[in-house]
Amino acid sequence: MRATTNLCLLFGMIVLAGCGSSTRPTTATAVNTEPSSDDLKSRLEIFAQTGMVGSGAAGMKVAIQELAAEKSGPLLKHYDELMQSSRNPAKVKEIAKKMIDSL
Asked: Which residues, at least 6 apart from 61, have a Cβ–Cβ distance to it below 8 Å?
């Protein structure tokens, strides 16, 4: 009986020692949140080539709004046109090219 108690106590101590916290270093990764006209341009080039507006348009309006005012005004106007013409590939290509020129 005493051996069983000691064995259980020893097993419990081993389990607790194995469950201790480890000191793993955590590193933070810097994320660039600055709007990139290069990113917008690459998305628009795809639209201009394919004539299709897909998931690539997600977040574009916010990115355009964060650009300098002299660029964002015309781009926002074209963006609204682009979204309204999303079912017309020829129109999408035309508007995407205008937007690329505005960048």
From this structure: 76, 79
Place of tokens 């064995």: 7
Q: Which amino acid is at 48?
A: A
Query: What's the CA angle centered on 86, arms 83 and 92, to 5 degrees?
Result: 95
CA angle (86, 87, 93) in 5-degree steps: 60
Q: Could you read off the pLDDT of 42-84 as tens digits, one per residue?
A: 999 999 999 999 888 888 999 899 888 888 999 999 999 999 9
Secondary structure of the chain as H, E, C letters = CHHHHHHHHHHHHHHHHHCCCCCCCCCCCCCCCCCCHHHHHHHHHHHHHHCCCCHHHCCHHHHHHCCCHHHHHHHHHHHHHHHHCCCCHHHHHHHHHHHHHHC
